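Hi C.,

You asked whether I'd gotten around to modeling the 87-residue construct. I have! Everything is below, sequence then structure, no commentary in between.
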Amino acid sequence: MTKIFESPDKGETVYARKEGSSQRELHLESDKVRNLHDAIMESQLWGNIHRAALTNRALQIALERVKVIYALTDHYKERYGNRKNKG
């Protein structure tokens, strides 16, 4: 039986199915789609960590440490500037 290849998004993802079947399986993903998927999964992971930290003291402490370390980076300074209270 012949395989049919289809792409709903102009080649970013390609699915294969047997002729006459509606069952398809992923055949190929572009780097763009894969990177987007990875970013979504990472975002979901951080959301889960934040929700779990509401009731888990060890996670609360770890997240506070991450925030402090991030605040000390050049990326933070470039994005948010110097936020020290100038009084």
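If it helps when you're writing up: The beta strands are 3-6, 13-18, 24-29.

Thanks,
B.
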